[in-house]
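R.M. (postdoc): so does anyone remember the format we settled on? I'll just put the structure tokens first.
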């Protein structure tokens, strides 16, 4: 008996004192035969910490001992006996162990997994007795059972073979031998082999399974009769998902989970909303009938999210179903980000309090690369969530694409999960008890090892891709079978009637009662908490209803600012900095003392320090963010002696808010989606994703289009995510010049997000502070600089940081006589400094240069105010580095025209364009051509004669 496990048992009052001996005896029985103890105790024991001591079984024949160690991985006691000749029985003993290993490796290929029984799988030679030079004549021969959990040290070959068949070739097929961790493999073997993958459930559990299946089928029947032909992406054929989700939530609650975040695509979503999360059926019916009240543009029913609280044996649990567009798998990293944010809020680095469950379609799981990216994140420091339970609703077809030939190149749709050594449990959806078993097993594994686990729920779709689709045109054989296929609920009800657990009248009553509750618009989830504990989730009310004019004072006490500046430049004694980094910190100390002007990297770092000082958290991720792609940040310092790191922003004070900064894996789509999910869950955290180069955001366009730009208006999901996208034309070619500003500008409408191009350190300081200080939470897209990070003129003072604010428009900085200015050049970003240098060089004092620092929402009033200061203007031109068909011109000119035309209309003030010609490519590939283009349009903007 493992002492630690019994100590846990004895610590519970109801099993202490005189009951301890009884419980210990029961626990020992459970270790050898879980089915021999009552179900309630089996469930209790399964949630205890695992037994780490392998049962030692002595093998009397020394020549076999080495085979046991290598093939079965069991511990054997050393023997002093000399080696003896190997007998025929001993040879067969080794082959028996090989047989056991073969079933563990390949039993899933023989398992009965397809409810339609259409799979044609070749025989698996490894699972044949003759392959191992065994035969039916050996079935009565007794062999050592080795590491096989069969309840005894010795058994006949027939018993061993029968146990293996029932465990690995029934309606559960397990893939776990790819896991290199021996402890994990042995844990799975013990859990499956000890009950033959089929625990004995009591009558109450079976009735509950029937009730949940009835609910799943009942909702689909109701919707089908009320709204025939209307798209709903029904769950028919996969009804076992509902008892599966019910079991997982209850199991998670029993472990002490306080929140479960759920992601899924379309199929079965309405069923999960009503039968798992407790959405009122009446509200769903109103949505079908067009009676629902909505804000913004809203979204279709099968994209909607929801949240509620349910009661479990471990207490109240908050459920959150994420919103998801038709880009099916993109919800996966969004869920992970939301979970990580909730875990951080609960100070739970392990993942005990919040669990993610993500449901996938088989074709999408196999076909969409973001699945791989999300798996790759799962164990990294910045993105781990303590393991995710993945459920693949395997309809065996992708819209009209057959999996046998076209949907994938792998044997299973779940094979991608092997890259992180996740165990995969394939289960026949028409066996609800097998579904319940793997559901509990998956949650137990996740809680035990804090790693991802996958359930492949093999089922079918009864109605085709959607209810308006005719599937037999492309899958005639499949739908000929489905037409005659009894539903999972019908099959299970029949089985329970035959077992005498229910009679037909009781089964029919369950169906009738559910349908009546639906028709009356009642909640049908019995565990639903009608008055949920609001302390379990974040209160967003302080951030709702604020517009762009919401106050946000970004000034900061100068004395305290200088104190923080000193703190973040203090390096621990003996910490060995690299030479260039040491110079950067030496310069920053001078900046803090006022001996040098402040550069970009220092101003940005001070923005984070002041926010932390005001009790806001900060999270920054992306490729190379610790140092910064262009070596400007150096927020994470690396000792040159031993490689350990020091982060000054984590060491402002003992009780400071969380500062997180992590270099990400080389992913854009999954990482940006993760950060979106994080930002939608933590309104008091400045969440930043920085692209290595701005054009890398191309790889995350789905996230930008479907979540960042439109999430508030489709789903009323507020999000303060900040994207830093390095942007600037420095002759580095088409790939790393443009962050595709024009794409973000095209997405701007209804004040959905901010697009800024800051050009000074003070501007980035106040812009980042404004993002948190203002109570409004909307995405911030920043065209951040590259060469400006070290430009001699792109500097600020400590006073500008302490006493300034973010300026949406910056007027001319030189002391020009504004009455003599005839031409005004509007611009944004790096090109300003090139214009300024040439204007000064050629003394073009009748031309003023004005910077637009915020392109959206467009600063109409401020720009009017600036232009009004030039009474004798003849022309205004917009100058940009980007080609004419790119950049801000096409999506901002009507806004600029509106301002220009409002300025003394009788003067007929004109607005012109100056910049590169239209181009299919973002930038020139040769530095010489780049310079030629730049010189031309700079001269044109300033009316400089070209020789």
């Amino acid at each position: 008996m493992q002492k630690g496990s019994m100590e846990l048992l004895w610590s519970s009052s109801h099993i202490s004192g005189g009951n301890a001996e009884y419980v210990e005896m029961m626990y020992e029985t459970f270790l050898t035969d879980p089915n021999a103890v009552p179900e309630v105790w089996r469930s209790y024991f399964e949630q205890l910490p695992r037994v780490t001591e392998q049962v030692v079984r002595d093998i009397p024949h020394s020549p076999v001992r080495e085979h046991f160690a290598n093939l079965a991985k069991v511990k054997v006691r050393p023997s002093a006996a000399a080696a003896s000749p190997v007998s025929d029985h001993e040879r067969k003993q080794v082959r028996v162990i090989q047989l056991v290993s073969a079933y563990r490796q390949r039993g899933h290929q023989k398992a009965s997994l397809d409810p339609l029984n259409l799979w044609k799988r070749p025989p698996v030679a490894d699972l044949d007795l003759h392959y191992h030079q065994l035969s039916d004549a050996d079935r009565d021969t007794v062999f050592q059972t080795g590491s096989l959990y069969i309840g005894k040290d010795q058994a006949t070959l027939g018993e061993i073979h029968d146990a293996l068949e029932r465990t690995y070739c029934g309606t559960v097929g397990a893939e776990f031998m790819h896991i290199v961790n021996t402890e994990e493999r042995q844990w799975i073997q013990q859990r499956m082999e000890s009950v033959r993958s089929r625990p004995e459930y009591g009558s109450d559990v079976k009735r509950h399974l029937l009730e949940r299946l009835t609910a799943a089928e009942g909702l689909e029947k109701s919707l089908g009769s009320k709204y025939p032909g209307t798209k709903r992406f029904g769950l028919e054929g996969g009804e076992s998902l509902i008892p599966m989700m019910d079991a997982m939530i209850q199991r998670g609650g029993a472990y002490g989970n306080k929140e479960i975040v759920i992601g899924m695509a379309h199929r079965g979503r309405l069923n999960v909303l009503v039968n798992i999360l407790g959405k009122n059926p009446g509200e769903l019916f109103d949505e079908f009938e067009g009676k629902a009240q909505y804000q913004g543009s809203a979204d279709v029913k099968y994209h909607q999210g929801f949240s509620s609280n349910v009661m479990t044996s471990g207490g109240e649990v908050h459920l959150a179903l994420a919103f998801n567009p038709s880009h099916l798998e993109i919800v996966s990293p969004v869920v992970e980000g939301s979970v990580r944010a909730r875990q951080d809020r609960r100070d739970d680095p392990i993942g005990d309090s919040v669990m993610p469950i993500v449901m996938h379609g088989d074709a999408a799981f196999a076909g969409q690369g973001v699945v791989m990216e999300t798996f790759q994140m799962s164990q990294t420091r910045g993105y781990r969530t303590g393991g995710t339970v993945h459920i693949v609703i395997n309809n065996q077809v992708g819209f009209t694409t057959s999996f046998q030939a076209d949907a994938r190149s792998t044997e299973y749709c779940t094979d991608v999960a092997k890259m992180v050594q996740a165990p995969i449990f394939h289960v026949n959806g028409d066996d609800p008890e097998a579904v319940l078993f793997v559901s509990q097993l998956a949650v137990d594994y996740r809680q035990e090892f804090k790693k991802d686990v996958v359930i492949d729920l093999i089922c079918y779709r009864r109605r085709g891709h959607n209810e308006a689709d005719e599937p037999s045109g492309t899958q005639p054989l499949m739908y000929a079978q489905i037409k005659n296929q009894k539903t999972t609920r019908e099959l299970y009800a029949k089985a329970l009637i035959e077992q005498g657990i229910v009679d037909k009248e009781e089964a029919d009553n369950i169906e009738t009662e559910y349908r009546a509750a639906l028709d009356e618009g009642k909640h049908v989830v019995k565990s639903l908490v009608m008055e949920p504990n609001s302390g379990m989730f974040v209160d967003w009310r302080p951030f709702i209803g604020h517009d762009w004019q919401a106050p946000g004072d970004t000034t900061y006490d100068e004395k305290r600012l200088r104190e923080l500046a000193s703190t973040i430049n203090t390096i621990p004694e003996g910490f060995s900095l690299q030479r260039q980094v040491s110079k950067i910190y030496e310069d920053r100390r001078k900046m803090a003392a006022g001996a040098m002007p402040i550069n970009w990297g220092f101003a940005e770092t001070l923005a984070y320090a002041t926010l932390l000082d005001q009790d806001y958290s900060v999270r920054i991720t992306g490729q190379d963010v610790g140092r910064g792609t262009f070596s400007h940040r150096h927020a994470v310092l690396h000792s040159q002696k031993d490689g350990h790191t020091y982060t000054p922003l984590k060491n402002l004070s003992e009780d400071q808010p969380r500062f997180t900064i992590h270099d990400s894996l080389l992913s854009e789509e999954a990482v940006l989606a993760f950060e979106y999910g994080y930002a939608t869950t933590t309104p008091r955290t400045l969440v930043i994703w920085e692209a290595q180069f701005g054009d890398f955001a191309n790889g995350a366009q789905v996230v930008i289009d479907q979540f960042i730009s439109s999430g508030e208006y489709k789903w009323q999901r507020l999000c303060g995510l900040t994207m830093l996208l390095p942007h600037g034309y420095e002759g580095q070619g088409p790939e790393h010049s443009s962050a595709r500003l024009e794409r973000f500008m095209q997405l701007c409408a209804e004040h959905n997000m901010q697009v800024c191009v800051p050009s000074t350190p003070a501007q980035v300081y106040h812009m980042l502070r404004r993002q948190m200080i203002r109570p409004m939470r909307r995405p911030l897209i920043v065209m951040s600089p590259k060469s400006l990070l070290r430009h001699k003129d792109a500097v600020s003072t400590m006073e500008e940081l302490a006493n300034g604010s973010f300026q949406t428009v910056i007027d001319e900085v030189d002391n020009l006589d504004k009455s003599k200015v005839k031409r005004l050049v509007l611009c944004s970003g790096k090109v300003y400094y090139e214009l300024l240098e040439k204007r000064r060089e050629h003394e073009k004092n009748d031309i003023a240069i004005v910077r637009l620092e915020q392109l959206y929402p467009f600063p109409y009033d401020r720009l009017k105010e600036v232009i009004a200061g030039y009474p004798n203007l003849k022309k205004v031109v917009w100058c940009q580095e980007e080609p004419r068909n790119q950049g801000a011109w096409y999506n901002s000119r009507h806004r600029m025209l509106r301002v220009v035309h409002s300025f003394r209309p009788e003067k007929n003030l004109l607005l012109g364009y100056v910049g590169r010609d239209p181009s299919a490519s973002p930038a020139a590939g040769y530095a010489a051509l780049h310079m030629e283009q730049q010189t031309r349009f700079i001269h044109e903007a300033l009316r400089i004669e070209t020789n």
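R.M.: ...and that's the designed sequence above, right after the tokens. Also worth knowing: Confidence is low (pLDDT under 50) at residues 1-17, 52-83. The two ends are 94 Å apart (CA to CA).
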